Please model this.
Amino acid sequence: MDEFALIAELLAPLSRGAPDAFDLTDDAALISPRAGHHLVVCKDMIVAGVHCLADDDPGLIARKLIRVNLSDLAAMGATPRAYLLGLALPKQTDEDWLRGFAGGLALDQAAFSLDLIGGDTVSTDGPFTASLTAFGEVRDGAELRRSAARPGDLVFVSGCFGDAALGLAVLKGALKGLNAPDEALLRDRYHLPRPRVGLGARLFGLVHGLIDVSDGLVADLGHLCAASKVAAEIDVPRIPLSSAARAALALDPALLEKILAGGDDYELLFTAESEAATKLAAIAVELDLPITAIGRITEGSGVTALDASGGQIDLPSTGWRHF
Amino acid sequence: MDEFALIAELLAPLSRGAPDAFDLTDDAALISPRAGHHLVVCKDMIVAGVHCLADDDPGLIARKLIRVNLSDLAAMGATPRAYLLGLALPKQTDEDWLRGFAGGLALDQAAFSLDLIGGDTVSTDGPFTASLTAFGEVRDGAELRRSAARPGDLVFVSGCFGDAALGLAVLKGALKGLNAPDEALLRDRYHLPRPRVGLGARLFGLVHGLIDVSDGLVADLGHLCAASKVAAEIDVPRIPLSSAARAALALDPALLEKILAGGDDYELLFTAESEAATKLAAIAVELDLPITAIGRITEGSGVTALDASGGQIDLPSTGWRHF
Model:
């Protein structure tokens, strides 16, 4: 069996929950939102060697591909529903790899309640390249945007920052000296983002601007500020860190760059009036997910980072470089 | 300006017709079908060196990418509406190339009335790779399927066959001896498919099984037969050919292989009762697009090709090889 027949055989069962995908045998699929809802659509690509390591576990690559897209849905407050999958496979892709990849898709379809509804598989002379289009649903008028932050809002974030970027450093051999459990935690956060779809779907009516952090905390806060035509100040000591990230920072304070600018965090960053803090705290408890206020929105433009004594930290406009 | 900033600047105006794409500045876009309609979605990828030639005009690559996807929408009877675009760009991609590519997108957005609503641009060490997700609309219950062919139906096709495959042979220097206008016509049909969206949207209620021919006439008729659990006979002399294809065939009768199996035709193939022929002829006149009966659906399985005297032509099950 050639790789195209095999991947078709492996992917067909992943559409079982979506009868309008016609067992992936037709040219296209049907999809419509439920009454009173809109579809939310997004597309993120990954290229081996750029967005994942070429020798990463194929199941983890598949799950990362799904999850980075689900993070974009979460950033609009949408609930995942379906996806289209485009694969460009190097000619030497073997059966074990394809089975591992399909197994990863199956795991995360179950974890996030979405179905494969179609796509395309082609061959390439280049690296493994995948493109996923995710479909989510949001109630009419309940979509959240990055452009709605207002001066006076507090800046909140979910989860912790820097773990994925530090994990990549561990994988590349550039970060040594951590104990094995800390290394394992950081590697895991690089391989397997946690898209905050449960949180995103809870934030309508409570928050103003919302974005997911994929490019880096400072960069994506900058995107939110630019879209909202506001400025932001963040208190760097308030940025939530895992114990593993704190251990890394103790080894080398310069690693703070990875926390501020490393990216791949896939946490949500949002702005809300201070009165929302109580309800946000209740949601944090319910979802067992920390929500932390790290700064505030002001008039103006750009992002300012402040140290423990309120002194300004140099943040070049093109991204964080020195500390 | 780096290539990412440039492509973002070039793509943003392409979303002007779609306010729910938020100027491509958000993480995702909103889309919903009009009342009484479903969305039809599909995704086709192209890889330079596989689905287009690496030195093809970038505007033509862009238009081919849109058009192969629109052909899939046409094969469901859907009307195009929007698309998401994923690009993996080699690092040496220059500004002229990106401007040419965006120009091609703009041309075909206007030609087919659809808007860019989002996507992703990444870098790659491999060849240029693009993934497009097209969104169309079809009235509830009016979608057409490849699985609805019935014994007794006639097999109809739009347009002509083989031109694109012969055009690729011209471009590769494998087909010589044609006059310049014939060569130009064939090359053009390779570079620029004509997705039959106008025809597809007219066929509901008139035809049974419907598919677009991308893999080759015999292969895609085989796909329709397999999905419909029927067999088909085609009369090879009835297959419509352009004058350029007839000239090529006069030079080398073995080129019939490219007509039967070359692919990239992007014509529609559909089955209907013989009573539909009059209405189909009227549609053909109205759309200025030939519609030709080339065979019939029977009980059984597989595709049989017959020559002018009704003799069976050898068609290996894995694709046409000898004639």
